[in-house]
Inverse folding.
């Protein structure tokens, strides 16, 4: 589950810079049921689309107009805190097509979001009020005064508790229907009042001990039932109001079919650690299948899901970056977004005009492959090195024609078609 964004700059994605047109729905691995065929998927997707979170207040203040313009041009979606709504026109002047979304925490409220000099709410005395702009759907003092029981008690003590590792963020009763309705109503008001294009819903919890165990939600089943209830309440109201939403779900691969089920109420889900929780991937075999099924499920349901791969560091090596890019391209239909590492990460491969996808991904031996009019991608999701037959002639890294490439363990490749050469089908 991702870190609350007001404490650190979580993610700045680099534009993938590969012009790709994707069509069709990627099949799931043979070990899982195939994704249903969906007609009318986009065939002209342009570059692989990326998203960027800017939630660290000091970092946002330090950004220049030129930097914001570059970020608007490089990304399909930019996520900001509520109080940074004045950047919306700045970003849209640079790129009218960019979407600017607001960050909201579903399962916590902050006690440092008040109008006091240092922002701390303290005991919420008579002279203390919540700030106008909030990272959650409601203010800490408002909850204390009007619905103190919405601050859930910890198992054992029964007292309200802060998120473990994140002082001044207090877990809330996100499974309570009245809480859900109030949270949703407040967020819709923020979106309408300030012109946001959508809502990034953080902390859609799946496990009881993500930040400490609440007495009310002490099992994974209880947590998931509460979160799914919240997504249904929130998603229905958002759809009625014309507000887009993507929910950040942690540990989804630990629970079969959870991702697919939770796609229903919202416009999409976020996988914050696609293929990797660190700079180096460990996703091979069945675990790679689970991550890949998340992408193909989003494509099958026409959902705008977001996938971030690697730790929030510049230390993600090129092999792991290419593994994520190629794996993503096997299954995406062009609606999903990808991001890698952080702002300091090295650039992605040069622009590759691959054109339209020629179909879904296919399995050749133990290598997965997908062909495009202007190139191909191949992925080895195993723990051993393999030769990948590309099904046609393509330009290799040295500019020579190749019909196969060697892929090390947990690696991928993207190759371009050469003029006059025979591309795969």
């Amino acid at each position: 589950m991702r870190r609350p964004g007001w404490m650190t700059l979580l993610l700045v994605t680099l534009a993938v810079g590969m012009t790709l047109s994707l069509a069709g729905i990627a099949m799931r691995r043979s070990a899982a049921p195939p994704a249903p065929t969906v007609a009318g998927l986009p065939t002209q997707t342009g570059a692989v689309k990326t998203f960027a979170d800017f939630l660290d207040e000091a970092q946002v203040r330090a950004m220049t107009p030129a930097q914001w313009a570059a970020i608007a041009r490089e990304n399909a979606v930019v996520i900001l805190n509520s109080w940074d709504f004045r950047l919306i026109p700045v970003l849209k002047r640079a790129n009218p097509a960019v979407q600017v979304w607001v960050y909201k925490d579903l399962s916590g409220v902050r006690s440092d979001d008040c109008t006091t000099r240092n922002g701390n709410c303290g005991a919420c005395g008579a002279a203390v009020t919540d700030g106008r702009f909030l990272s959650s759907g409601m203010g800490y003092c408002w909850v204390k005064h009007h619905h103190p029981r919405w601050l859930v008690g910890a198992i054992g003590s029964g007292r309200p508790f802060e998120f473990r590792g994140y002082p001044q963020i207090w877990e809330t009763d996100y499974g309570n229907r009245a809480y859900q309705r109030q949270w949703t109503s407040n967020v819709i008001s923020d979106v309408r009042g300030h012109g946001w294009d959508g809502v990034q819903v953080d902390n859609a919890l799946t496990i009881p001990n993500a930040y400490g165990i609440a007495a009310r939600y002490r099992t994974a089943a209880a947590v998931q039932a509460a979160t799914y209830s919240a997504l249904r309440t929130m998603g229905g109201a958002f759809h009625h109001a014309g507000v887009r939403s993507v929910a950040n779900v942690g540990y989804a691969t630990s629970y079969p079919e959870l991702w697919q089920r939770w796609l229903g109420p919202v416009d999409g889900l976020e996988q914050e650690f696609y293929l990797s929780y660190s700079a180096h991937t460990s996703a091979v075999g069945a675990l790679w299948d689970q991550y890949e099924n998340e992408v193909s499920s989003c494509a099958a349901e026409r959902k705008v899901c977001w996938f971030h791969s690697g730790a929030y560091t510049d230390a993600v090596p090129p092999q792991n970056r290419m593994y994520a890019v190629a794996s993503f391209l096997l299954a995406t239909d062009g609606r999903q977004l990808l991001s890698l590492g952080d702002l300091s990460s090295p650039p992605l491969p040069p622009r590759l005009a691959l054109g339209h996808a020629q179909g879904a991904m296919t399995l050749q031996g133990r290598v997965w492959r997908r062909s495009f009019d202007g190139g191909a991608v191949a992925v080895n999701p195993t723990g051993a090195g393999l030769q990948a037959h590309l099904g046609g002639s393509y330009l290799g890294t040295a500019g020579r024609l190749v019909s196969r490439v060697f892929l090390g363990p947990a690696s991928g490749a993207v190759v371009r078609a050469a003029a006059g050469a025979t591309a795969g089908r």
